[in-house]
Every structure is written in C-alpha cells, then in structure tokens.
Amino acid sequence: MIPISDTIPIRNKPIIIYWLIGINIAIFLWQLQLEFSGELGYFINTWGLVPDQITTAITNAIYFNPAAWVVVFWRSASCFLAMFLHGSFSQILGNLLFLWVFGKTVENLIGHRLFLGLYLSGGIITAITQIILAPSLTIPLIGANGAIAAILGAYVFKFPRKKIYTIFPLLILYIPVEMPAYFYLMWWFIQQFFYGIGSLHIPPSGVNPLSLGHWAQLLGLLIGGGIMAFHQSSRM
C-alpha cells in the first residue's frame, strides 16, 4: 500500500521538505560508499544513537568525573544526528515517501519554521524516550521514524478523514484507491516491521540497527497532534 498524494492544494513550496529529502538522500549515498569501503560500522556506532553510551557517560559524569559532562554533550548530539541516518533502502524510501505525502500539506499549513520544529522535536524527543525505555541497549538506533510519526500525527489530527490517493501493488497490477488519513496511523506501525528489507550490513552485530522502541513512536504521534492543536488555538 503506497500513499501517493492527498487532495489538498498547496499554495507555497515545501522548502523545508525539499531540504530534508536532499540531506537524507545525500547522507544515505554516503553510507553506501562507507559500506563498500568497510567503514560503515564505525560511522554508525559513532554517530548513531546508542543508549548505553549515553547512560554510561551520564553515570561517569555524576559519580566519578564531572569533566565527563563534555562526553555526555557529545554523545547526546546523536539524538539529533541519528534521525538523518538510515539502515535500509526500505526505511529511507518509506520515510521520505511519508514525509512528502503528508509533510507538504502540514508545512503549507503551519509554516516553514514551525514545521522544522515539529520534525526535529518529534525525532529528538522520540530518541530520548528510547534511551529511557532501553538505557543499556548497545545497538545503534537510527532513522527519522520519530520525526515522520510526528508529521503523521499532525496531519491526522487536522485531517483525519481526508482522502489519500493510494496504490495497492498486486503482482504486476497497481490498483488506485482512496484511503482515509487515519488509516495510515495503523499502516505506519505495520510498515516499521518491514524496514529490514534491503538493510545495510552494519558490524559488529550484523543486526539491522533499526529502532527497537516502536512504541516510543506513539509519542511522536502525540507530539505532532499537540503542535497542530497549539497552532490551531493560537490562530483563533
């Protein structure tokens, strides 16, 4: 099931989405080059979100070495950087597709700056939640799943019954249908389980380092809905 577009006209160019798509594609191409050269594992484990590294750094800073707060700050930057890394072709394609279909309408509605804040806050707060849920996890968590969940939450809050042009691939046939926006709340979480398809091989574990905290993305949906509710109330 592939969302294609909605029926809402766009008056302004989605500039932030253009930049986000370009940055994500450029970094993923860089990841492919690193995989071929055998450097991808080090890169992902350095810049991906590894909860155990952050919680260990915080523990050291509190109980042993106050100077270690510098390490905490450096490690915490991964909460931001990890949302621009992806572990498979299916993950980046799925995220960018949802970003385009649902994001362009949200950006047009709330403006460029607030949309960027929505995207970044969804990704960062979801990352922090994943650290809380699995503080000793040593597998790097990467991807913009939390940010996309926030965008989907904002869209569905505002347009729950808006029809989305959708294509159902059936063998070599593609059947076009219209689906209500709220249906994609369920489909979004189903899609997460297929993100391992076409995954990059990232040592040392060889395990696809996609987010294990799918439930944390529920928070992303709530963030998106909350920001949209705030935007509506501020315009009244």
From TrEMBL:
Keywords: Hydrolase, Membrane, Protease, Transmembrane, Transmembrane helix. Residues 79-225 form the Peptidase S54 rhomboid domain. Pfam families: Rhomboid. One of its GO terms (molecular function) is serine-type endopeptidase activity. It is found in: Membrane. The chain crosses the membrane at residues 15-32, 80-102, 114-133, 139-157, 164-190, 210-230. One of its GO terms (biological process) is proteolysis. The keyword Hydrolase applies. It is a multi-pass membrane protein. It comes from the Bacteria. One of its GO terms (cellular component) is membrane. Belongs to the peptidase S54 family. This is Rhomboid family intramembrane serine protease.
